[in-house]
């Protein structure tokens, strides 16, 4: 009796809850878990700040290098190099912008607003030029259109001409040639954004314009085009960023842009300070481009007032009109993809012995391994950035995330200049310490291992990773985080056990995009690759520089085949959006 009374008056205590976990009896989260969660959250936010600092570090280093006193270098650059390079770069950007707008917007409107023979094929085939890097298309264009190429050879055979003076033919290796070739490769950026904007427009506004007597031309120029203007500006900006980043095509065409001037000043003239000063001038062009894009949209609305979305119904085109529409869509695909791919395939079939070349095997292994490492590093960093914004959507975190993604707007040559000097200084510091302590020389420990190249890839393509991961994370309800936290999971546990398994498609997409772009990247790879280190891209570049492009046809074809992967992904995505 007494024992039973004592049991009632003094109940046994439940087992103590583990620190930072749940109460074993009630299942509630203990107070000790709160500081642990706060530490996890603060750690992830601090990681974003570090990544933002790493992303902006090359630009800070670049400014420091450019400010280094160099006797007469800036005066020489400002009077002889910069005026011509700036003017050539601006003309190239203007021409490429016009070509991409005409081709990209025109084909986007045709495939979105009209129905004609082959329309379904062209909706995804118009993306194919994205698979071919600009420098490979440039090499293939010269192979076809040069004096000894099949086109001029056929003209001489048909007309009986013997020399170049006997007939007129446009000069391929020129600024107009570079504009046409690069425009035919980069127009898909405008096509993608413009077509998406056209498909998202409600047919109500177009129907009203037609009711008021507007013809097809006025409907396009006064209704559809103004509503799609922001998307078109974004697409053109992306195309011009790629145009600024190119070095292989413009150098092969003999066009001295700012990118070529950086490369020539650094490697051929041995002036790193001069290269940094040109790179700063190039950053001014990039900044002007970004500010122009922002200013074009400021204070303007580009939406219809209707709250009901009516899908755009394609207008049938038959007969001559249908044939002309099909030809207008077929020409960019033929010139931007089919002809270069045909040239590569033909050259590769004549050089099948290259398949057993150990140099090609080594370059392929270098490209694959470095692209895989860059994809893993970039996706991991992009996931941390996107998750930090999800955890703490405050302005400082968002600003840090934006800074971490700024690398895509910075050309590869500029990043390379900003990365090289700090990396070399760190190598020298480590080597000096090891000599002093152990009498050993480590040499180029970081630069010689390709760490700088991975750094450049990650900084350059971080925006792709963050964008893809954020898009995938936005589809997951915040209630998943709350439920996991209620059950005692910390920030890292919630990410690892709950969010990441649900985000596998988004992570795979981000990894694929970074992997393919790293495989194709040329400017940063040329400047930061270790000694006696070749990738598929540098192998193609070296062969073309020796005027022996056919020697690297197999390597170029391999790059194109890898580049087809994101094009297939994009085609499937756009088809799903359309459905």
Attribute tags:
mainly alpha; 1% strand; globular
Would you give an account of this structure?
Strands 1-2 form a two-stranded parallel sheet. Mean pLDDT is 81; it is low at 1-34. Helix 2 (33-66) packs across helix 13, helix 5 (134-145) crosses helix 7 and helix 15 runs antiparallel to helix 16. It has helices spanning 2-9, 33-66, 73-113, 119-125, 134-145, 150-159, 175-200, 203-211, 216-227, 229-245, 248-252, 258-268, 272-297, 319-350, 358-391, 395-404, 412-438, 451-474, 478-486, 491-502, 504-520, 523-528, 536-545, 553-578; strands at residues 114-115, 315-316. The radius of gyration is 28 Å and the shape is globular. 73% of the residues lie in helices and 1% in strands. By secondary structure, it is an all-alpha fold. The longest helix is centred in the first third of the chain and has 41 residues, at 73-113.
Topology of this structure?
Elements: H1 2-9, H2 33-66, H3 73-113, E1 114-115, H4 119-125, H5 134-145, H6 150-159, H7 175-200, H8 203-211, H9 216-227, H10 229-245, H11 248-252, H12 258-268, H13 272-297, E2 315-316, H14 319-350, H15 358-391, H16 395-404, H17 412-438, H18 451-474, H19 478-486, H20 491-502, H21 504-520, H22 523-528, H23 536-545, H24 553-578
Helix pairs in contact: 2-13, 2-15, 2-16, 2-17, 3-7, 3-10, 3-13, 3-14, 5-7, 5-14, 7-10, 8-9, 10-13, 12-13, 13-17, 14-24, 15-16, 15-18, 15-21, 17-18, 18-21, 19-20, 21-24, 23-24
């Amino acid at each position: 009796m007494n024992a039973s009374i004592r049991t009632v008056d003094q109940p046994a205590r439940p087992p103590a809850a583990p620190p930072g976990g749940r109460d074993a009896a009630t299942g509630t989260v203990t107070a000790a878990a709160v500081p642990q969660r706060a530490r996890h959250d603060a750690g992830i936010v601090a990681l974003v700040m570090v990544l933002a600092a790493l992303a902006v570090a090359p630009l800070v280093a670049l400014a420091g290098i450019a400010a280094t006193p160099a006797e007469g270098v800036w005066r020489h650059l400002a009077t002889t190099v910069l005026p011509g390079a700036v003017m050539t770069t601006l003309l190239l950007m203007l021409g490429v912008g016009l070509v991409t707008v005409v081709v990209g917007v025109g084909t986007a409107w045709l495939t979105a607003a009209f129905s004609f023979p082959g329309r379904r094929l062209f909706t995804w085939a118009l993306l194919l030029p994205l698979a071919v890097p600009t420098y490979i298309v440039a090499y293939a264009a010269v192979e076809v259109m040069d004096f000894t190429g099949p086109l001029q050879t056929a003209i001489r055979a048909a007309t009986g001409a013997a020399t170049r003076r006997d007939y007129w033919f446009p000069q391929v290796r020129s600024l107009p040639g570079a504009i046409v070739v690069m425009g035919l490769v980069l127009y898909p950026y405008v096509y993608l954004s413009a077509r998406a904007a056209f498909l998202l427009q409600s047919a109500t506004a177009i129907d009203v314009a037609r009711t008021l007597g507007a013809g097809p031309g006025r409907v396009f120029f006064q209704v559809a085009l103004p509503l799609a203007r922001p998307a078109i500006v974004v697409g053109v900006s992306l195309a011009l960023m790629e145009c600024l980043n190119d070095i292989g095509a413009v150098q092969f065409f003999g066009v001295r842009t700012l990118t070529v001037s950086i490369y020539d000043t650094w490697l051929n003239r041995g002036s790193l300070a001069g290269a940094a000063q040109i790179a700063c001038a190039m950053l001014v062009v990039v900044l002007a481009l970004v500010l122009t894009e922002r200013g074009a949209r400021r204070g303007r609305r580009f939406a219809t007032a209707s709250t009901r979305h009516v899908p755009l119904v394609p207008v049938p085109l038959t007969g001559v009109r249908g044939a002309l529409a099909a030809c207008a869509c077929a020409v960019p695909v033929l010139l931007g993809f089919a002809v270069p791919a045909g040239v590569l395939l033909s050259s590769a079939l004549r050089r099948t012995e290259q398949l057993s070349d150990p140099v090609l095997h080594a370059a392929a292994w270098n490209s694959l391994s470095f692209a895989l490492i860059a994809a893993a590093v970039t996706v991991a960093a992009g996931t941390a950035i996107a998750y930090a914004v999800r955890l703490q959507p405050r302005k400082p975190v968002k600003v840090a995330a934006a800074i971490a993604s700024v690398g895509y707007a910075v050309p590869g040559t500029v990043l390379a200049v900003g990365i090289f000097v700090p990396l070399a200084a760190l190598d020298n510091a480590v080597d000096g310490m090891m000599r002093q302590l152990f009498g050993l020389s480590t040499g180029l420990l970081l630069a010689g291992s390709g760490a700088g190249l991975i750094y450049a890839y990650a900084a350059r393509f971080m925006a792709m990773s963050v964008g893809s991961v954020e898009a995938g994370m936005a589809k997951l309800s915040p209630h998943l985080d709350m439920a996991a936290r209620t059950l005692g999971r910390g920030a890292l546990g919630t990410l690892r056990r709950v969010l990441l398994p649900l985000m596998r498609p988004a992570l795979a997409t981000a990894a694929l995009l970074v992997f393919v772009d790293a495989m194709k990247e040329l400017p940063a790879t040329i400047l930061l690759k270790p000694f006696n280190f070749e990738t598929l891209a540098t192998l193609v570049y070296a062969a073309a520089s020796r005027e022996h492009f056919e020697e690297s046809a197999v390597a170029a074809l391999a790059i194109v085949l890898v580049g087809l992967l994101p094009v297939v992904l994009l085609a499937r995505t756009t088809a799903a959006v359309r459905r």
